[in-house]
Amino acid sequence: MAQPGVNEAPAAAKQHLKTQHPDAVVKEWERRNRNVKVEFKVKGGEYDSYYTPAGAWVRTEHDIDKKDLPAAVITALKASRYGTWKVDDVELHATPEHAILYKMKVSERSTVMEVFYDPTGKLIKEQKDDE
After folding, report:
1. Tens of each residue's pLDDT in the chain, 131 residues
2. Which residues of the chain does CATH 3.10.450.360 include?
3. Class of the CATH-defined domain 66-128
4. Is-contact 64 94, C-beta < 8 A?
């Protein structure tokens, strides 16, 4: 698939990124299956934002350490059916619906799930990882 340059990225997406992250240093814009992805850095942190082809913001995400999860999220995960599963990956997400979401990839044997918690430890979404 062709890699869109900054001039081919949706104007609304470029404006949103500039408004939300004025100090962002863009690495690249990339057309994905359903969305347009921009990789960028802010204050040394690496982020990805996703937009619809029309430029509507879908989400922004970046990797965090497990130790940076709020206690409420750790407690909720341990109390859930995934409490004994291995935590493979942790990301901080922001979406139009949720300013802060914690996404964890958890696995047990050959099953891999993605679970999303809000900062209070409420499970927002769970889905099978399709990678």
Report:
1. 344 455 578 999 999 999 999 999 999 999 988 999 999 999 989 999 999 999 999 999 999 999 999 999 999 999 999 999 999 999 999 999 999 999 999 999 999 999 999 999 999 999 998 75
2. 66-128
3. alpha beta
4. no
Number of Cβ atoms within 10 Å of the Cβ of 79: 10
pTM exceeds cut of 0.85: yes
Determine the Cα–Cα distance for residues 3 and 33; give it in Å rounded to an integer.
Answer: 12
Phi, psi (degrees; rounded to nearest 5) at 112: -125, 130
Q: What is the DSSP letter of 66?
A: G
Distance between CA 51 and CA 23 in Å, rounded?
19
Q: Which residue type sits at 70?
A: P
